[in-house]
Description:
By secondary structure, the protein is of the alpha/beta class. It is about 55% helix and about 10% strand. The protein has 10 helices and 5 strands, in the order E-H-E-H-H-H-E-H-E-H-H-H-E-H-H. Strands 2-3-1-4-5 form a 5-stranded parallel β-sheet, with helices on both faces. Helix 2 packs across helix 3 and helix 4 (about 60-70) packs parallel to helix 5. Adenosine-5'-diphosphate binds next to helix 2 and helix 3.
Amino acid sequence: MRLILLGPPGCGKGTQSQRLTEKYGIVQLSTGDMLRAAVKAETPVGLKARDIMARGELVPDEVVVSIVAERIEQPDAKNGFILDGFPRTVPQAQALDQMLKDKGIALDAAIQLKVDEGILHQRIAKRVADMQARGETIRPDDNPEALEKRVHAYRVQTAPLVSYYSDHGLLRAVDGMAPIADVSIAIDRILGKVADPVAAKGH
Ligand code: ADP
């Protein structure tokens, strides 16, 4: 299974991706995580991306496209993958289409997590508080100013992908405002992987 999760920062892409990896045995490819690892390791990509990310802006398309192209070639991505945070622009989506076409594979769905923008600030604030409580390092872009820019980048650069995938017949929308477990059920339904309710109750 090859999926894309689409939605603004804080919409729950990471949470749902994590669960999908466990349930379906496919890998989560998060460009945010890959870039953060590159920043930490101070690779050339990391050095290029660090300040851009901290400001809440998007890293250039060619940088992320090459990271993803390399990553989906790895053996663990053979079974399938969930792209979390990629594509984020129309040129990235076009590059992905080309990459998959070259490999003779296709996407199964682009799942859009729909949320009200107003809730994003609360969710990020909660994420920061939770990470602080666990003694973890706070992301440099989890602050009100950078979050504003990330939401803006989503609106301007990423939201057009909703029409892009709708035009390609791949878009499936779920209500990302629902509780985590309900969002998961909605996604499973879309994927046609939900057991029938009677069987699921153990009858
Ligand atoms: P979130 O969805 O919470 O904003 P991510 O972890 O997906 O966070 O991404 C963090 C940052 O990494 C983004 O704000 C951006 O700077 C960079 N980034 C991640 N994925 C991409 C991408 N596909 N294209 C450009 N920049 C990206």
